[in-house]
Amino acid sequence: MVKNFLYLLGSNVFGQVLTLWGFVHIARILGPDSFGQFVFAQTVSLYFLYLADFGLQTHGTREVARVAENRSEVSRQVLQISLLRIGSALVAFLVLWIAVMFLPKSADVQHLILIFGLSLFPSALLLEWVFQGLERMEPIAAGRVARGCLFAGLVFFLVKTHDDLDMAALYYTAGILGSTLLLMIYYLRTIPSRNLVTHMRFAELTETLAKAFPFAIGAFITQVNYNFGTFALGLYLTHKEVGVFSASYKIILFMWAFVVVAASNAILPLLVKTYREDKARFLVATRKIAQRFLLVGIGIGAGGTAVGDRVIQFLYSSTYEESSVVLQLGMWIVTVVMLRVVFENALIASGAESVYSKGFLLAGALTLIGNLALVSVAGILSPILVSLIVETFLLIFFLVRSQVLSASSLVNMSIRPVLAAVIMALTITALSFHILLLMPAGALIYFALLLTFRCISIQEVGRIVGSLIH
């Protein structure tokens, strides 16, 4: 699991750094107002991206993990789920087209949303979920790096003025298309897929959709939780305020993408197999994963709070300075979500889809009500405050319902890492290093403190390094 996590983490860091760099370049060229339009349009399209997915990626990952030894069955799952995803992408794009006509925005913004909507089609054929189920993370890593390189390269060389706004949205889709083609070529060269179309039955397709539906709720509401705040700001505040907020929020989503997504993708296949083979071992593994993710998450939250203002100063112009507090508070969302995905994936692995979907339904309702109620009071801070509350609720809900770990055990597990994180944050706040030196210095200080407080041991670090070498 550590090896898979580090493959995904490394590729996500590299790919998402490039993607973030592309967004930073766009923000600098376009300014807060146009950048706000760009981010608003992307946010709207993301809802339909997850509507089109319909939970099929998560369902597919679990099914592929269950039949990984039978490559013929893997191929059947890939064909079945890919056909469903293509069909749902067509339906989602049609619904997007209709919805945009009634959206109270200018024709330019409506057009920009539809351009982003084109990403539904290459996303439908993106096969990351297949390799995740097979626990083969190298192709996923290559695809994510390719996506970041393509998007950032096109943006850096070709986006020069405000007139290039629509083209920047097309380059975003081009990055996804490049990743899709790379993974598809790799899949066709390594996994047999012959004579499967004749075995497809309509009843099987509808059964798959029914099984994927709880995951569709979770995936869609996850996007509500992360993006409805931006949407609410776009409806009630100016594009400039959306742009200022998004300058920091893109960094938070960047952290979410390269840490939380890597963690979630790495642990699901492991937990599925462990639960199937040995329930007692499943509980031990889940608790140990939760403990290790807690260490990383607390370090990210404390470190982000300590250096958030300097990160904004380094990346953006002074017009975005107001968004520093968004980043400092928002890094704790990454902490909470990183721990939440452990118990979320434990529920998925154990077949508790109904609990999973109920939790996300409640969270979605809280997100909608909270953002609409707070946006006029808290302004650009409202999405962050609501997300912190909602994600904490989800963490507690999944923790209690999974019965993997007690709340008191989690609190006891947190005491020493929190102490280490506070000392680390105070230390790097006092240092005057350049931000590119300050962040790795903070990580080293935190690691040394974890060793000092016996949160981890030298022997455990040695075992992890040994597993990577062998």
List the helices and strands and how they pair.
Blueprint: H1 2-53, H2 56-66, H3 71-101, H4 107-117, H5 120-124, H6 128-133, H7 137-158, H8 165-190, H9 202-236, H10 239-277, H11 279-315, H12 324-349, H13 353-378, H14 382-402, H15 407-430, H16 435-452, H17 458-469
Helix-strand pattern, N to C? HHHHHHHHHHHHHHHHH
CA-to-CA gap between the ends? 14 Å
Q: In what range is the share of β-strand residues?
A: under 5%
Using only C-alpha atoms, the radius of gyration works out to 22 Å
Shape: globular
What helical percentage do the residues reach? Answer: over 70%
Care to count the β-strands? Answer: 0
Structural class: mainly alpha
Mean pLDDT across the residues is 81
Helix run count? 17
Report the biggest beta sheet as strand number plus sense, adding barrel if it closes.
none
Low-pLDDT windows of residues? none
Write a structural description.
The protein is an all-alpha fold and 470 residues long. It starts with a helix and ends with a helix. It is built from 17 helices and no strands. It is globular and about 60 Å long.
Task: Provide a quick synopsis of the model.
By secondary structure, the chain is mainly α. The protein has helices spanning 2-53, 56-66, 71-101, 107-117, 120-124, 128-133, 137-158, 165-190, 202-236, 239-277, 279-315, 324-349, 353-378, 382-402, 407-430, 435-452, 458-469.
Defining traits:
470 residues, mainly alpha
